[in-house]
Amino acid sequence: MRRSGILFPIFSLPSPYGIGTFGDASYKFVDFLCKAGQSIWQILPLGPTGYGDSPYQSFSSFAGNPYFIDLETLIEDGLLTKEECDAVDFGDNASDIDYEKLYFGRFKLYKKAYDRAKERGDLKRKKFKAFCKENAYWLEDYALYMAIKDSFGGVNFMEWDEDIRLRDKNAMSEYSKKLETEVECYCYLQYLFNLQWTALKKYANKKGIEIIGDIPIYVAFDSADTWANPSLFQLDSKGWPLAVAGCPPDCFTAEGQLWGNPLYKWDEHKKTNYNWWLNRMKRCFELYDIVRIDHFRGFDAYWAVPFGDKNAVGGKWLKGPGYSLFAAINKEFGTGRVIAEDLGFITDSVRNLIKKAGYPGMKVLQFAFDESGESEHLPHFCDKNYVVYTGTHDNYTIKAWVDQMDKPSVKFAKKYLHVKKRKQLPEAYLRAAMGTASDTCVIPLQDYMLLGNEARINAPSTLGINWRWRVEADKLTDKLAKEIKEYAVVYGRVSKKISN
Prior knowledge:
Blueprint: E1 3-7, H1 24-35, E2 40-42, H2 71-76, H3 82-86, H4 99-119, H5 126-134, H6 136-151, H7 162-165, H8 169-178, H9 180-206, E3 210-215, H10 224-228, E4 243-247, E5 257-262, H11 266-271, H12 275-287, E6 290-293, E7 301-306, E8 316-319, H13 323-333, E9 338-340, H14 348-357, E10 361-364, E11 386-389, H15 398-404, H16 407-417, H17 425-435, E12 440-444, H18 445-448, H19 478-490, H20 496-499
Parallel strand pairs: 1-2, 1-12, 2-3, 3-6, 6-9, 10-11, 11-12
Antiparallel strand pairs: 4-5, 4-7, 7-8
Helix pairs in contact: 1-19, 5-6, 6-9, 12-13, 16-17
């Protein structure tokens, strides 16, 4: 059961046209994982992103990000030409993503692809119609929401005309007819996303690679989820949040983290036997082999910040749904395909919930070596039913973390990991993670590459600098794969399928 994998977002792939996609580079990365003796590829949420570019603030909990649709595949399919794609300015930095240029460039190309698909009859074919029918429970609201949003210049749905903002029956009918073409285009983009992702996942699974997907606990306020299901969220009579999600002050920021997501009205969810959540998990298990649920402690108790506050300091803890939600999920899907992200302020109540739900939790070695020597993230606390990491997408890279560690922590880490110099610590962290008793070990690619903070994915509570890092194609070498595999071999984490 011992296994290991790499944490690496889709957007960080070295694909052409501005961002990582489901194209050739993604298949080569699966091959790289095999060469490296890995059996897991952990990614970040795949939902369509909005303001701030965060995959944890998506326009839909069910839809896929159109940016990940591979343009080269559309060229091969005759839906676009290479000249059309090459003519668009996506930015010229191979290690960075310019989301503004993506937004203005990609959707013009997608509209051309949709027009050509419609002209040649693709939208009348059984596969497209079957996809729309099977996914109607989320696709219809999402596509209409996006089409209406575009018609209002992209503003938050709270700024739409009141009749459609409140989903008046006549307004819904009117907009559906008026925007029929635009709605169908968004449905087609989801079809393309699903087609390309399903093919990539099938290829990975055939090679012995499982996909760990990541889902946020909350939805974005400006989302199809909130617009279509207002009764499931803590909103006032006008539709504004009563309170929003966040985290209390912690090691990341003294002001806490103010996420701004609407909070669930859990009693309403319970009345429906958590039907919305069951649909959400159903969709997740179609997309991924394993699902990591972010901020799991929020199901036990969540930090509610009054709407309008400038930071999260004034929040308070409120009771979440507890085990009743996971009883419904486990009854429907079983227990073997969920990871609980149990980081942050963890109480015995949270620990008991995770244990009762039957999910593995997480250990992160960046949190292990404080001078007290009492951290529950120390390697000797990483038992079998945990997934161990050196760091996550929210952390420093391991090299950058070691560079900024205070002297007492460095002294303790060197003693514990049996190294003499600070510069030896990053590789010692890798060995310690791989050597734990935990069944599963996942390491960010940047940590194996010993990159600094220029390769950090996200710095919480900051805007404009996150979700942008991309690896350059010539860095994913056979030499690097061989080095990674050596860790997997030494610590017994190479699966038989991969090793063969």
